[in-house]
Write a structure and sequence with these properties.
Number of domains of chain A: 2
Structural class of chain A: mainly alpha
Largest sheet of chain B: 2 strands, antiparallel
Radius of gyration of chain B: 25 Å
CATH architecture of the largest domain in chain A: Orthogonal Bundle
Oligomer: heterodimer
Strand content of chain A: under 5%
Mean pLDDT of chain B: 78
Structural class of chain B: mainly alpha
Helix content of chain A: over 70%
CATH superfamily of chain B: MetI-like
Largest interface: A-B, 104 and 106 residues
Number of domains of chain B: 1
Number of helices of chain A: 14
Shape of chain B: flat
CATH class of the largest domain in chain A: Mainly Alpha
Order of helices and strands of chain B: HHEEHHHHHHHHHHHH
CATH superfamily of the largest domain in chain A: MetI-like
């Protein structure tokens, strides 16, 4: 605001108008810069826990566990090798298997369903859609006891396939909901033209509709993958050693004794890295997917 | 209102709730042979997904209802039998339920309110051209991508730890004595990590809302002498209303079920025993299958009440928007 002060003396000059305009522009510039700086402070503050986690992962335990944070300290990859020595790779692989398997099955079920829900004229599409949304509303807690006892009876506890099937149930409603909004974007003329051509519905789906909705499908797939990768409740209850995925392993990684902050940070960094990188790269699509799925 | 991109425009996708739809729908038109074929195909395509959803979510829930009327503790396998409403009586007279309900309301409610407020603030900051806009947005959405288990651990040990936590170090610069976050304010630590994780989600929805607002109208208002605060209160905020409602609805659904930070940070101590954590404890620690199932049924009923009110609201917004355009 101090830069705006000369403006009040401006009328004394022979041509008052231009300086005043310049002062206004100047003031605008200053507020704009201040806002940008403020935005960056908020952004960096918000991102700080992530940045600090990654930074701490490269420190020694002694350097990580200080009351006043150490900034200038020897950095190394030792904590990461320590984490991998504790068998972390197996858990990452289990997470990858469960996420990929469940996402593929979700896509195989949700693409036809979303397409079916967008075919005109369909009666009761709202009812079907409502049903899908409502299954998403149901707390997983409502279903976990019978599922646990069933899997126990079948000897399928600690089984990565069983976990993947449950992730299908978890992600399917969301995927149908999101994809339907993308499918209903397909212009009616394109679908009708394909029908007149005599294309049957599956060739129509693959050749005509799929290329148009591909970005939407990619977004839905990414979101399903993220939810499966990050899932903790089912994984911690239904897996123990063989099929343990990353989140429950991470949860039991520290017992609060001794110095563990650096190795915990390294394990967390490895655990979040795939999804964060994928999310960054596919950010635009992720945003569209969420916004479309949410708003439509 | 120029927001046609928000509307489910096809007449066949009438978004009104089932009850009012039967009243409003015109007489069913006769379908041609081709349309009938298309309809049959549509049903064929949708059924597999519906069947899987029923098998994985609905049938277990029905079994849960059945269990909730059983007297069944896994420690005493022989004593299983029909219990009538005994489990529900235990739930409502036990005292744990009301505590848990209030913990759920406090944690879910404050996390939603805080994350919507922060989300709105950040969305407003990011909704202008500035140096490094894209990078700033990338950094801001990161907490939402972060694995909740990792976020909970990093907050508990790296940010909020009484001795080496960064938050206490930050406070010490301001002259504030160290705070024992994890032991003295367990509910607050859970709310902090949830708010941090859900703010980007709210921000994304609200930013989509801001970007759909017509720039011309805002410029016209500015030319007419409306200040930024006035045009925010009288134009942007009403425009954002449906986005805010949507953000609250979706956030509410996800946060009502929240389990990870409670299991990892507090283990249900200090007013953080939410309904889902209580159910977990009764079923998998107490091995009281019948009682835990009763908690499950009650949780679902509560969620259905909240969600159907919210959904009705959502559909009402869509249909009134549709009527306007």
């Amino acid at each position: 605001m101090t830069t705006a002060a000369p403006a009040s003396t401006a009328p004394r000059t022979s041509t008052p108008a231009p300086p005043r305009r310049r002062a206004k522009r100047m003031r605008h510039h200053v507020t704009s810069t201040a806002l940008t700086i403020f935005t960056w402070i908020v952004t960096l503050g918000f991102f700080f826990p992530v940045a600090w986690m990654v930074f701490t992962a490269f420190k020694t335990e002694a350097a990580a566990a200080t009351r006043t944070p150490t900034i200038f300290t020897a950095l190394s990859l030792d904590r990461f090798t320590e984490v991998l020595d504790r068998g972390f790779g197996v858990y990452l692989l289990n997470s990858l298997t469960a996420s990929v398997m469940s996402t593929v099955i979700v896509l195989l079920l949700a693409i036809p369903a979303a397409y079916g829900l967008s075919i005109r004229p369909i009666i009761k599409s709202t009812d079907a859609l409502f049903f899908f949304i409502s299954t998403r509303f149901m707390p997983i807690a409502a279903a976990i006891i019978p599922i646990y006892l069933l899997l126990q009876g079948l000897g399928m506890l600690d089984n990565i396939t069983a976990l993947s099937v449950l992730y299908v149930g978890m992600n399917l409603p969301l995927a149908v909901w999101m994809m339907r909004s993308f499918f209903s974007e397909v212009p009616l003329e394109i679908v009708e033209a394909a029908q007149i051509d005599g294309a049957n519905f599956f060739t129509e789906l693959v050749r005509v509709v799929m290329p148009i909705v591909a970005p939407g499908i990619a977004a839905a797939a990414l979101i399903c993958f993220i939810f499966a990768w990050n899932e903790y409740f089912l994984a911690s209850l239904l897996t123990s050693t063989m099929a343990r995925t990353t989140p429950p392993f991470l949860g039991s990684f520290v017992d609060g004794r001794g110095q563990f902050l650096a190795v915990l940070s390294a394990a967390s960094t490895l655990a979040v890295l795939p999804v964060v990188l994928a999310g960054w790269l596919a950010q635009k699509r992720l945003v569209t997917g969420l916004a479309m799925g949410a708003i439509k | 209102m120029t927001a046609p991109d928000l509307i489910v425009a096809e007449p066949a996708h009438d978004p009104a709730p089932a009850a009012s739809r039967t009243l409003r729908r015109p007489p069913k038109p006769e379908l041609s042979a081709g349309q009938k074929k298309a309809l049959r195909l549509a049903r064929t395509l949708v059924w597999p997904a519906i069947v899987v959803a029923i098998l994985v979510t609905q049938i277990p829930f029905l079994v849960t209802i059945y269990y909730s009327f059983q007297n069944w503790n896994l420690m005493r396998p022989g004593s299983r039998g029909f219990a009538g409403f005994d489990n529900y009586v235990t739930v409502f007279t036990g005292g744990a339920f009301m505590q848990s309900l209030s913990a759920t309301v406090v944690i879910t409610g404050s996390s939603i309110v805080l994350s919507v407020l922060f989300g709105l603030g950040i969305a407003l900051l990011l909704n202008r051209k500035f140096f490094g806009q894209g990078l700033a947005r990338t950094l801001v959405i990161t907490p939402f991508l972060m694995m909740p288990a990792a976020a909970a651990l990093i907050f508990k040990w790296s940010m909020l730890d009484a001795n080496v936590g960064m938050v206490n170090w930050g406070l010490s610069i301001l002259g504030v004595d160290p705070v024992q976050w994890n032991t003295d304010f367990p509910a607050l630590t859970v709310i902090m990590v949830l708010t941090w994780q859900y703010t980007p989600f709210m921000m994304l929805i609200l930013l989509a809302g801001l970007q759909s607002q017509s720039k011309e109208t805002l410029e016209a208002a500015s030319v007419d002498g409306a200040g930024p605060i006035r045009s925010f209160l009288h134009m942007t905020l009403p425009h954002l209303r449906q986005y805010i409602e949507l953000a609250v609805l979706l956030g509410g659904i996800m946060l009502l079920q929240v389990f990870d930070p409670i299991a990892i940070m507090t283990r249900g101590t200090g007013g953080t025993k939410t309904l889902s954590y209580l159910l977990y404890e009764r079923a998998f620690v107490g091995l009281e299958i019948g009682e835990a199932a009763a908690y499950g049924v009650i949780t679902v009923l509560l969620t259905i009440i909240v969600a159907s009110v919210a959904l009705r609201l959502l559909f009402k917004i869509f249909s009134s928007e549709g009527a306007k355009s």
